[in-house]
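Narrative of activities, Objective 1.

The group set out to show that a structural description can be obtained from nothing but a protein's sequence at a throughput compatible with the screening campaign. Below is one input-output pair from the validation batch, recorded exactly as produced.
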Amino acid sequence: MAQIPYVYIGKRILATIPILLGVTFLVVGAAEFIPGSRAERLSSKGALSQEQIAAIEKKYGWDKPFHERYFIYLKKVIVDGDWGQSSKTGQLVSDQLIKKIPATMELTVVAMVLATFFGVFIGIIAALKPFSWIDYASMVGALTGISFPVFWLGIMMQLLIYPYSGRLPFEMAATFEPVTNFYLIDTLFWGPDGSFIAAVQHIALPAMALATIPLAVIARMTRASMMEVLTKDYVRTATAKGLARHIVIIKHALKNALIPIVTIAGLQLAALLGGAVLTESVFDWPGLGKFIVESAVAKDVVALQGAVLFVAVIFTLMNLVVDVSYGFIDPRIRVGKD
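Output recorded for this entry:
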């Protein structure tokens, strides 16, 4: 059994802490450059007098220097789990995020599974037949996938296939009560007849639209990595020993080509979590991306700040997961031992 690289993991975690602090500083600081008064954006009464603005700013601590407000906000988020209160709905931002995150995570995971499976498969096929028509066709397809704007692809899918919107048909969504807010799980175990099929139909098109760019990137990275590994001596030796072709490819070649593939797949997964804005808007998917758009349109700075901060933190943590995974895939890159 492989030894768990505790020292390596610990160093990666410690290196992530200042990055997370820097991310929160940038996100909170960016709100300072948004035009207009926070008090007026928070109020629904229209124009406020200077006295009313001063009272609201004092109530929420906005009259304090930036560095004080930053540490207060940091304490609330980390210690109290308080991400602020939405000026649009009056609800806690954390409660809204909890409702929106499962929809985005479900869409992102399905899209990433499709992108990884087909991307790795296409990349391996292209690497085994370099500079053949299969190789050229797969790479042209990958370039095409990168070139298509996601919002355009989503609109074309709705026009040419079926205009799905939301996570379930309207009449079914009106009466269905989710348990986990992951509809593929909820409809499979607790949904009425036909609801699981409906949930799959509704997630299929947005997932395919969202998967196009990471699929293309993973396919190209897999092809390049596999072509390099297939020229190594240990692959030639395994082939010369008479091992089956699929064993050589999977056990010897693909295993040693995984590091760049894992890197790009992890980064693409993190990017999808924050980049689903256009896809969710086109398909009316009630997730984090649509929430960011609605918050921006409504000038709900507190909600927008919380959503963007969450996406930034997730992206940073995904980088950490990818970095730590290196120590398990290839022990040679560990910087410490237990």
